[in-house]
Specification:
Largest sheet: none
Shape: rod-shaped
Helix content: over 70%
Number of strands: 0
Number of domains: 1
Strand content: under 5%
Order of helices and strands: HH
Oligomer: single chain
Structural class: mainly alpha
């Protein structure tokens, strides 16, 4: 039995096995990376939602304080004019307060919508990351099956060429 064909077969088998191992490792790393990126992006989206809520509450508190000052000045101006706070002046103050609160409610609604969008993006990103991770894992498993098939072909080719000795029936 010649040594050269056996050495060639051994090198081919070793190369295929090394390639399979490298592809499997790369697929696992890609899967981990996809999961880590998705989790990081989700954390960013969640933090953005929380910061939006904090910023909004700060703006609302500031606006309410400014509204209180404005309404106080309005009451003072009405009182200084000698008009009683009844009838038209009372209606004016109620309308002013209502419009001011409506603006605050609009900001709260807009903030809630933005936060829901950020939380939804976080959840969707995690799902997408998991899907990518799963795809990389499947790709790694497929490369193993492909490598096993290739090893079988190399072995059969070597056997048929007589690398392991005389082929039966030849």
């Amino acid at each position: 039995m010649p040594a050269i064909p056996i050495i060639m077969v051994a090198v081919a088998v070793a190369g295929t096995a090394a390639s399979m191992a490298a592809q499997q490792a790369a697929s696992k790393q890609a899967a981990r990376t996809a999961t880590n990126v998705a989790n990081y992006n989700a954390a960013v989206d969640i933090n953005n939602a929380k910061q939006t809520q904090i910023d909004s509450q700060t703006n609302i508190d500031r606006q309410r304080a400014q509204n209180d000052i404005y309404l106080s000045r309005q009451r003072s101006a009405i009182a200084a004019s000698g008009v009683l706070e009844a009838g038209s002046p009372l209606d004016l103050m109620a309308d002013t307060a209502s419009l001011m609160e409506q603006g605050i409610q609009d900001e709260q609604r807009d903030t809630s919508m933005k936060m829901e969008g950020d939380y939804s993006a976080a959840a969707a990103g995690v799902v997408q990351g998991q899907a990518s991770s799963d795809a990389y894992k499947i790709q790694g498993q497929a490369s193993l099956f492909s490598g096993v098939g290739q090893l079988g072909q190399e072995g059969m080719g070597a056997y048929n060429s007589g690398a392991f000795g005389k082929v039966a029936g030849k």
